[in-house]
Amino acid sequence: MSHDPSYAPAASIPGSRIRRIAALADEHPGTLRLFYGEDTLPTPDFIKAAGRGAIAENFTFYTPNAGFPELREAIAASYARLHRTETNADEIVTTASGMVAIALVCQATLSTEDSAILITPLWPNLSAAVRVTGAESIEIPLAFDETGFRLDFDRLEAAVKPNTRLLALASPGNPTGWTASHDDWERIVSFCERHDLWLLADGVYERLVFDREIAPSPWEIADARKRTIVTQSFSKTYRMTGWRIGYTIALAETANRLKTLQEFVVSHAAGFTQRAALAALEHGEAFVAESKLRYEKHRRIAIDRLRKIPGLVLAEPPGSFYVFPRLEGLTDSFAFCRGLVVEHRLGVAPGSAFGAGGEGHVRLCFAVDENVLREAIDRFEVAWNEYRRTL
Predict the structure, then answer these.
(1) Rounded to an integer, what distance in angstroms lies between the CA atom of residue 281 and that of residue 68?
(2) Cβ neighbours of residue 84 under 8 Å, at least 6 residues apart?
(3) Closest Cα partner for 258 from 270, 249, 246?
(4) Same structural domain for residues 310 and 372?
(5) What residues contact 175, with CB distance under 8 A and at least 6 apart?
(6) What is the CATH number of the domain that holds 32?
(7) In which band, very low, low, confident or very high, does the pLDDT at 1 lie, cut at 50, 70 and 90?
(8) How many domains does the chain have?
């Protein structure tokens, strides 16, 4: 038997193509950085003050694996209010980032003999979390045309295998902005019940929707809860990407399993970040509303400008802070994005990074300074027009 570590499932997973574009941008000063999924403004002062205060008050020791009770209670109360559904603190596990939340769910539901279906294009870390467990990742792309993205239930049905144990998706989605309706969730839940699947519902962008207060959640469907695990993060809603604080929502028995698993990954989220997250929930509603107005303005700028560029098809994203245009004739988005950095000092994420259905697209994050966004689109238009002449 070989003891080469490359035989371990996790060792064969390639690095993120988004990070590779970021590393290239580091080598080219002056590159406009629209490849990361984060706001370029800092965490708001009231959250930073809570974090500093927590350190001063010595919230630097171990915490319960599931997080401080007062934070879990606040999360449950907030979720219940926003989704108009009962949610309890014993159904909450605070995690050291949304990524840890996803990893724990995959560990709790999958083994090396299993497979999981993922709705793509999707943040690549979710597929990687499946493969780290040794399970097979089956990618089913959303259908796409100029009117938007939509679920293809026929392809979903055809993808199920005898060993399929999990369906994973994000709503609103990264990079597409696609957002499941309540009817979509009912069909998804019915699909999972019919095939006896767990449902991993990543809702980190649920507050960042532009036609309502919050995106629908499968947690609103009472019969769905026995098989549903929601993963969440404070990163996007509250500009806390570097704080690494998230949570899961699941029935108490499943939550207890996730809590136990977190002990063997990172034990718990840091105490002072939990206190900062608590301040975000207690005092952050005005900030969230202000952020959404800014994102809506930038979204409109991006859509209006990009739709004037020939050879580009852009569906209007109902959620998230990305646009994901398809570039007609583009067959190697990674090479194109490398060229954008080297030749035009513009960094965007290649569509191929997001799995099946992503090639031919690029992702631009519009949660940046307005002047940077406008300049980025100017550079993009020049670069794309040059590229089209080579097709």
Answers:
(1) 14
(2) 220
(3) 249
(4) yes
(5) 121, 123, 320, 322, 324, 349, 351, 354, 358, 361, 363
(6) 3.90.1150.10
(7) very low
(8) 2
CA–CA distance, 138 with 119 (Å, rounded to integer): 9
Residue 90 gets which letter from DSSP? G
Instruction: Assign residue 57 a region (left: φ > 0; alpha: ψ between -120 and 50; beta: otherwise).
Output: alpha
| Over residues 33-55, mean pLDDT | 97
- Cβ atoms within 10 Å, residue 377: 23
Query: What's the CA gap between 83 and 216, in Å, rounded?
Result: 7
Domain identity same for 225 and 131? yes
Q: What is the pTM of this model?
A: 0.95
Chain mean pLDDT for the chain: 96
- Are 184 and 110 within one domain? yes
In a domain, 390, yes or no: no
Q: What is the pLDDT of residue 11?
A: 72
391 lies in some domain: no
**Res. 337: pLDDT tops 70:** yes
* pLDDT at 64 exceeding the cut of 60: yes
CATH of the domain at 252: 3.40.640.10
DSSP string, 50-79: HHHHHHHTT--S---TT--HHHHHHHHHHH
According to DSSP, residue 327 is labeled E
Are 258 and 248 in contact, with CB atoms under 8 Å apart? Answer: yes
ω into 44 cis (within 30 of 0):
no
User: Using one digit for the tens of pLDDT, what is the confidence trace for 78-105?
Assistant: 999 999 999 999 999 999 999 999 999 9
Q: Are residues 203 and 65 in the same domain?
A: yes
pLDDT band at 381 (very low <50, low <70, confident <90, very high): very high
Phi-psi region for residue 352, left (φ > 0), alpha (ψ -120 to 50) or beta? alpha
State how far the Cα of 35 lies from the Cα of 317, in Å rounded to an integer.
Answer: 17
For residues 345 and 376, the answer to whether their CB atoms sit within 8 Å is no
Task: Note the pLDDT tens digit of each residue in 179-237.
Answer: 999 999 999 999 999 999 999 999 999 999 999 999 999 999 989 999 999 999 999 99
Q: Are residues 155 and 175 in the same domain?
A: yes
Domain annotation covers residue 150: yes
User: Do 268 and 63 meet the contact criterion of CB atoms below 8 Å apart?
Assistant: yes
Domain around 98: 45-283
